[in-house]
């Protein structure tokens, strides 16, 4: 998970604005130890894992905002082309947890809002999700974790 400094104005974007963002904020808070943290933080590790699991569970039931740059969307053959980013040599679909987060970097692009389960059910194996890429609170969902988001 990353919490880099965002572009000018990113700090003025409301966060969190929905349950997915609340769970993401909690996971980031629990996963990033304070500078004075005890090296043997077993309790912190457990709390961090619980908050990450809670985020994944909330994300699974939530919706995502997917930018649709030129060429993306429904194709002539009925398939859906999605934008991708390269993260560690694997394709990741950029997604955002709210319209506010989408507007930080992609306000000029059309977008669609889709239930997370529907999106991951449509993804081919080996594709991850880049959640709020480049924003102050962003996280990669690696392909093996995407499988946990799929419908059961």
Automatic annotation (TrEMBL):
One Pfam family named in its UniProt record: SseB
Superkingdom of the source species: Bacteria
The SseB protein N-terminal domain, residue ranges: 48-146
Protein's UniProt name: Type III secretion system (T3SS) SseB-like protein
Species per Swiss-Prot/TrEMBL record: Actinorugispora endophytica
Stretches for region Disordered: 1-21, 28-47
